Amino acid sequence: MATFVNERSFIMKTNQKEHIMETALQLFASKGYGQTSIALIAREAGVAQGLMYNYFDSKEALLLAIMEQGFAGVQESMAVYAGTHSPKKALELHVEATFAQVTANKNFWKLFHAIKMQEQVQQFLDAEYAHAKSFIIKTLSGNFKKLGYDKPTDEAKLFFVMIDGLVIHHLMDAKTFPLHTIKKTIFQRYHI
Amino acid sequence: MATFVNERSFIMKTNQKEHIMETALQLFASKGYGQTSIALIAREAGVAQGLMYNYFDSKEALLLAIMEQGFAGVQESMAVYAGTHSPKKALELHVEATFAQVTANKNFWKLFHAIKMQEQVQQFLDAEYAHAKSFIIKTLSGNFKKLGYDKPTDEAKLFFVMIDGLVIHHLMDAKTFPLHTIKKTIFQRYHI
Amino acid sequence: MATFVNERSFIMKTNQKEHIMETALQLFASKGYGQTSIALIAREAGVAQGLMYNYFDSKEALLLAIMEQGFAGVQESMAVYAGTHSPKKALELHVEATFAQVTANKNFWKLFHAIKMQEQVQQFLDAEYAHAKSFIIKTLSGNFKKLGYDKPTDEAKLFFVMIDGLVIHHLMDAKTFPLHTIKKTIFQRYHI
Amino acid sequence: MATFVNERSFIMKTNQKEHIMETALQLFASKGYGQTSIALIAREAGVAQGLMYNYFDSKEALLLAIMEQGFAGVQESMAVYAGTHSPKKALELHVEATFAQVTANKNFWKLFHAIKMQEQVQQFLDAEYAHAKSFIIKTLSGNFKKLGYDKPTDEAKLFFVMIDGLVIHHLMDAKTFPLHTIKKTIFQRYHI
DNA sequence: GATGAATGAGACTTCATTCAT
DNA sequence: CATGAATGAAGTCTCATTCAT
User: Fold this and answer.
1) Do residue D164 and residue C165 have CB atoms under 8 angstroms apart?
2) Residue C48, CB, less than 7 Å from strand E?
3) Which residues from the 116-155 window of protein chain D have CB within 7 angstroms of nucleic acid chain E?
């Protein structure tokens, strides 16, 4: 009996925190971090303003928690195709995984791309992001080398910014930039 | 005499307005629009806070003026290669002109890319930006068609997001993403 | 059996109430009443926040309870030398008892002296404090009269504020104002 | 003409800042620092809340400014009797100057004594206060030595806490502890 | 045009207190 | 009795904007 109560209250707590994070993510993504007030998040989430501070030390800590959760998703997703593959298969999986990530997590990626250019925020993103970025480029570079490309690192960078650019424009205007249609053109270009 | 005085004050005014816009652009680009206060802009520009409102109705109007000035630069730059060219030359000129624009106007493009994902701002950007975007893609598409590409519109979109992605990453990390080195890889890929 | 359980729970309760009061006193004394939150007291005492309100109606009631407990100590201590003594012995005992009180109860006296000048708090202190103060002065005055002092009431007031001043400075800086060293000078001055 | 305007606006500015400080001092002294909100100060001073922050960086900075102004008064006052005097005259002047200070500046001294026991505030008081305290005790000690007292430093400390204790009680209850009546008893005691 | 003091709405945050469990 | 999640009022502070000079 007591166990049941504890479980339920644990679930409630978790849900409440999750609920706040989801509401905040949605608002941050659509209005921007700076334009989203704590008051609005609380109102939309249907909780009192003060409750936010039971779960997060500050508005910035809330943002950080959201970002970390999002990055955790990326790492999971990257782990999927980390195994040894043929270089072509690896390129294919990178694209597929990236698109799947973005599709499943649109709000997170909108927020991420909106925020990443602001110097002040880069500090706490850099630890996680710069590392992921250089890891991806190194991996891509290895694959392009195996495929006999002339300057594999430059090819990798170009591939990376192409995927990233496509994702960014897809997030802003999904109709004009549909991932799965343009993906075919990418695969043709790289003979995947 | 009076004419001279008027001219001088006109010049002063123009210079001061320009000076404020440049100061604001630099601060917006480095700290973000929301994190830059009118007080800071005035202090950095060496003018009184109230003076801003002689030139701009509001902080948002100041941003709008900066954006419009930036877009005017783009149109000028696009006009350069608007003439009839061979499709390859046209692609080359597009890349060159874009990179030249970005290099000459780093702060504007940093600000633009930082701001473009926020729904609220998109409204007044859309009029100018969406139009430019679709114009560029249409032009690129025409060139890819002339070059015999299979799906010229998708090729154009891919080309566009690739250039854009490269520019974005260059603005964030110029050392890892040098425009002129990676440009060569682009030209090779498209046989330019 | 039931009696035993009741006794135990009664003891627990008493101890817990005492424990909360002691924790609160220590925090009030070191951080100040206003700077000490209920949350902190509960955390330091190792109990739930809500539990406080089973024992005390409010934060102010907790303070009041602490103050009353402290004053009870004073009255006990004063009872010790309330008997008939020679006037010199009475003065001596007053000093000794005061210093013993302060030494045994540093936190309470720190809190008391930090709080006593705030008008708002004086209201509920006044009932207890003003009475004690005037009682002490009256008693001292009687002793100085017996000793043949010219203006015994003024002497009593001076004696009182001297002891009080010494205690206050001792509480703030015990090294510079050691009670037992300066006590000797007092005794010499009054030929005790 | 322009000079006149400048002068007047300078005076206005100065007055406004002074006016806020005086209002704040009065409220801090009567309600306590923690119990006095910025909103109340602004309301009492008849200005907007935001204006406070044109003159003071924070509520604490406002307190600091008030304290510094108060201490400046003390130093001025101490300079008056800093010259060479007979030791008796020096003691007399110390008492007179202290009482004059307190009488002229009741609110400041109420605030000071209410605040001085709070650990957190002591940090920025210590620089100014601890120095003044030890200077006064050293000076008094010199005088008591000249007068042939046995343990001049302990005498000085006792004298100091006696004056301080009297001031504190006078500030709380001026009727029971009138400075000028009790002063006579002090002077008799020390044969001044 | 130019100044900068003044405004006031609104942001983030804290915290005593309540209440369902 | 005990918990601690939840509340909501109130506090400090920021900042775009106005206006008298």
Assistant:
1) yes
2) no
3) none
With touching defined as 3 or more inter-chain CB pairs under 8 Å, the answer for chains D and C is yes
Residue nearest to nucleotide E11 (CA to C1'): A37
Task: Summarize the confidence of residues A72-100 as an average pLDDT.
Answer: 86
Whether A79 and A112 share a structural domain: yes
pLDDT for B92 beyond 70:
yes
Of the ranges B77-91, B132-146, C64-78, D153-167, the best mean pLDDT one = D153-167
| Whether residues A132 and A49 fall in one domain | no
Please tell me which residue lies nearest to nucleotide E3, judged from CA to C1'.
Answer: B48
> Do C180 and C109 belong together in one domain?
yes
Compute the distance between CA of residue B91 and CA of residue B99 in angstroms, rounded to an integer: 12
Min Cα separation D11/chain C (Å)? 34
CATH number at residue B3: 1.10.10.60
pLDDT over 80 at D103, yes or no: yes
Q: Chain E: nucleotides under 7 Å from a protein CB?
A: 1-21
Among the partner-chain residues B157, B162, B189, the one whose CB lies closest to the CB of A161 is B162
Residues 56-85 in B having a C-beta less than 7 A from any atom of strand F are: 58-60
Domain range holding A15?
1-56
| Res D117 pLDDT > 90 | no
Looking at the 3D structure of chain D, how many domains does it have?
Answer: 2
pLDDT (tens digit per residue) in A114-144: 888 876 666 667 777 888 899 999 999 999 9
Q: What would you report as the CA-atom Rg of chain D, rounded to the nearest whole angstrom?
A: 20
Q: Is there a single domain that holds both residue C122 and residue C184?
A: yes
Same domain? B123 vs B144? yes
Which stretches does DSSP call E strand in chain D?
A: none
Distance from CA of C80 to the nearest CA of D (A): 25
Q: Which range (A44-58, A109-123, D168-182) has the least confidence?
A: A109-123
CB C176 within 8 A of CB D157: yes
Is residue C137's beta carbon less than 7 angstroms from any atom in nucleic acid strand E? no
Residue B131 in this model has a pLDDT that exceeds 90:
no
* pLDDT, chain D, mean: 87
Same domain, yes or no: A3 and A96: no
Q: Is strand E in 7 Å reach of the CB of B50?
A: yes
Asked if strand F contacts D6 at the CB level, meaning under 7 A, the answer is: no
- The whole-model pTM stands at 0.88
